[in-house]
Design goal:
Elements: H1 2-5, H2 9-14, H3 35-41, E1 47-60, E2 65-79, E3 84-90, E4 96-102, E5 109-111, E6 115-117
Length: 120
Amino acid sequence: MEALFSMDREKANRGNVSLQYSAPKQPRPASSPSSGQQAATDTPKVSILHAVPVNLFLYDSQSAEYTQYGQVGSAILGNRTSMAYQLLFYNANKQTVCMTHINDSFTLTVQPDNYASFVD
């Protein structure tokens, strides 16, 4: 109360320290390695370009038959600057079931009744 009614401007400007707001500080980034080391350790970051649930069938080459794996998530991941793309299938626990790179040698065969096949 003294600071409110005081003629001492210095005390009035300080106010009650426990009632003053101080913004949280941003954490400092870790010290970065030299640019030569950083270029060697940097990998292109990928983002999810498209994701959809699908029913996955796995091909057994010994029996020459498809076996149903069940419903899984599928995603096309990519980095547009590096032109690196991947096709990813993952289960409910977010564990990878199958992943393949999409490049010039990747072949996706579209089949009747909304089926598609590829070899990874």
